[in-house]
Write a structure and sequence with these properties.
alpha+beta; Beta-Lactamase; Heat Shock Protein 90; 3 domains; five-stranded antiparallel beta sheet; five-stranded mixed beta sheet; 14 strands; about 55% helix
């Protein structure tokens, strides 16, 4: 790069001085007057200062221009004589004017170049900030920064986390400019990394023909780590830009950490609220059937001699119904325990929708053989990442909720649809709907109540809470709404994302 710039300056220097000499010669030959020849050289000197880099070319052009005027166009011709009467003052004035012109033009040129460099720097910083804003997490911020700095400095870049963890990583692109290798466990490199981060200062190192730049990534709260730039060429040209970019990265990381902390607090608050609601729902949903079992069994034992077989069967049937209800409740409690532990993972594996729905319906029909469900599933084969057992539990809970609270003999409609990047599951009943004041808190664990006096033991608050917990663990969403003749419960699962989810 420097060689090309030097070659360009030399070429422009020779062309402009040569052009001034040719123009002066033509004027001298045609007019026989040399008094204006100096003007051509002064113009050439100005252009040299304007279109070359540094002061040296303008100064050199000034000296050569004065000598050329004296040699070619001042009597005695083809001789250098600065001692004739009046000539020293003339040539000194010409040289002074030329030097002033050179200095002014070069200074203006330097200012223009500085302004252009600042504009380019601001543009790159703005571009860098836009990249940081587009990042979805801290790892993506670091990867974007690594790639950007690698391109900018034509160097390889390595991020070394604080405390010298072994999970340092470089840019994933193929742009390894230097094609050299560095070892962060090297004692010298390791010491520079530590010192850079401790002092929060940019440091450079030349070692074994490799040029290193150490950039600390830290804020007033966190010391994230150190970015190590290394190549066979020094990164001096972009050093100031590197200094400006690093604080932007640190601030972005700090900002994202604050967002993560805030989200964690909100999640903790939501978990605490859900836990409180769950306990309230459990107390309601367990106490009612247990009271029924105790009451029916006590009546049977105390009055069995006075009861006929029909009444005995009613009591036994009531006990069986309440016991089954409690069994279902225990299954739900085991489900929510599975996904509510701090260390628990919801394993999401691509599962065929048709098989998951079929299994859930089969389990539901065993419990409610008289209930009718109309199922609509897309014809195409569809795989969705999920924990199949948990999603089946959600479907069963929502179907049970529709059957128990709709108070209608009309069939329940179960519809599965694909909507862009997610799959929707909708359970639609034709009952009495959900009270408007309950729609906003339907999934918070509060027991569902209706006007039916016999509905006192049908609280599905815990079941709906479990549904919400499972769907959120799958990064999905669940909704409840009314239609003109009933209620609709819908949940949505993302089609992509087969990784594990930690319920934190």
């Amino acid at each position: 790069m420097k060689n090309k710039c030097l070659e360009s300056d030399i070429l422009r220097f020779l062309i402009l001085l040569g052009s001034a000499t040719i123009a002066s010669s033509l004027l001298f030959i045609t007019a026989g007057n040399s008094s204006n020849c100096a003007i051509f050289y002064m113009l050439a000197i100005f252009l040299i200062s304007r279109y070359t880099t540094g002061y040296i070319w303008g100064i050199l052009g000034s000296v050569i221009g004065v000598i050329a005027v004296n040699y070619f166009f001042t009597y005695p011709y083809m001789e250098i004589d600065f001692l004739r009467d009046g000539y020293p003052i003339t040539f000194s004035g010409m040289l002074t004017v030329s030097l002033i012109t050179t200095t002014t033009a070069t200074h203006l040129n330097t200012q223009k170049q500085d302004a252009l460099n600042r504009e380019q720097m601001l543009e790159k910083i703005n571009h860098f900030n836009n990249h940081l804003l587009s990042a979805k997490n801290k790892e993506e911020m670091l990867n974007l920064s690594i790639s950007f700095l690698s391109e900018l400095n034509h160097a390889d870049v390595l991020f070394v986390p604080n405390e010298y963890q072994n999970d340092s990583f470089s840019n994933d692109t193929d742009n390894h400019f230097s094609e050299v290798y560095t070892d962060v466990n090297d004692p010298v490199i390791k010491e520079y990394i530590k010192t850079t981060l401790d002092k929060n200062e940019l440091m450079t190192l030349e070692r074994e023909e490799i040029y290193y730049t150490f950039l600390p990534i830290s804020s007033s709260v966190h010391k994230w780590g150190t970015l190590v730039l290394y190549s066979k060429q020094p990164q001096t040209n972009q050093m100031e830009l590197n200094r400006l970019m690093i604080p932007q990265l640190s601030l972005s990381l700090e900002h994202y950490s604050l967002i993560e902390h805030h989200q964690t607090l909100l999640m903790d608050s939501e978990k605490e609220k859900m836990r409180s609601n769950l306990l309230r729902a459990i107390s309601h949903d367990l106490r009612t059937p247990l009271t029924g079992i105790i009451g029916s069994s006590s009546t049977y034992l105390e009055a069995k001699e006075y009861l006929d077989e029909t009444n005995k069967d009613k009591l036994i049937h009531g006990i069986l119904e309440d016991a089954n209800w409690l069994l279902n409740m225990v299954e739900n409690l085991l489900t929510i325990t599975k996904i509510s532990q701090e260390t628990a993972l919801v394993k999401k594996v691509p599962e065929p929708i048709e098989e998951v729905v079929s299994e859930a319906l089969m389990r539901f029909q065993k419990r409610y053989p008289k209930s009718k469900v109309i199922v609509k599933i897309p014809d195409e084969f569809l795989m969705v990442p999920m924990d199949a057992t948990l999603i089946e539990q959600v479907i069963i809970n929502l179907l049970e909720n529709a059957v128990k609270h709709s108070n209608t003999i009309k069939p329940t409609e179960f519809t599965v649809e694909t909507k862009q990047s997610e799959v929707s599951f909708s359970i639609k009943d034709y009952g009495q709907g959900i009270p408007e004041n309950r729609l906003a808190s339907i999934f918070d664990g509060s027991p569902i109540s209706t006007n039916d006096k016999n509905d006192r033991k049908k609280g599905m608050g815990i079941g709906l809470t479990i549904c919400k917990t499972i769907i959120l663990a799958h990064q999905g969403r669940i909704l409840a709404s009314n239609h003109p003749t009933g209620a609709i419960f819908s949940f949505y699962l993302p089609i992509e994302g087969g990784d594990s989810y930690e319920n934190k």
